[in-house]
Amino acid sequence: MGLARRLMHLATHLHARVYRSTGGRVLGRLGHLEQVLLTTTGRRTGAPRTVPLAATLVGSSIVLVASDGGAPGHPAWYLNLTAEPEVVVQRGRRAAAMLARVAVGPERDVLWAAVVKNNPGYARYQEKTPREIPVVVCELSKGTRPAPAP
User: Fold this and answer.
1) pLDDT in tens, 86-104
2) For position 13, which CATH number holds?
3) Quick check: pTM over 0.90?
4) More exposed terminus of the chain, fewer Cβ within 10 Å: N or C?
């Protein structure tokens, strides 16, 4: 792992730790962008993996963007949730078990427009990469109750 990647990994870990310990009072927003903690199950290890991500709220859904800053490959969290769509999303002090799915077709187009309006940087990330950046919808499943924060 290169130095830049290690520093990014450390920054991500620290962000999640500060967010969780303060219930999102610190680092729960970066500018106007709401941050959430997404916990997935590692597709190879089976271990919980938590990352802070910018979120766009659309109705009762939490919409996430697997941009990885416009990198050529998908971020690990995205690969994890495509292998195991049961995730935990923490907003502030509240965490909820949710089901994640990748938006496709017209739904993706509508959600992409919403996330780019919320964060125009995503359009720049899309210009940097030949892959279509996935848009992920996290929704409570019927009967789901709030989950304890991981």
Assistant:
1) 999 999 999 999 999 999 9
2) 2.30.110.10
3) no
4) N
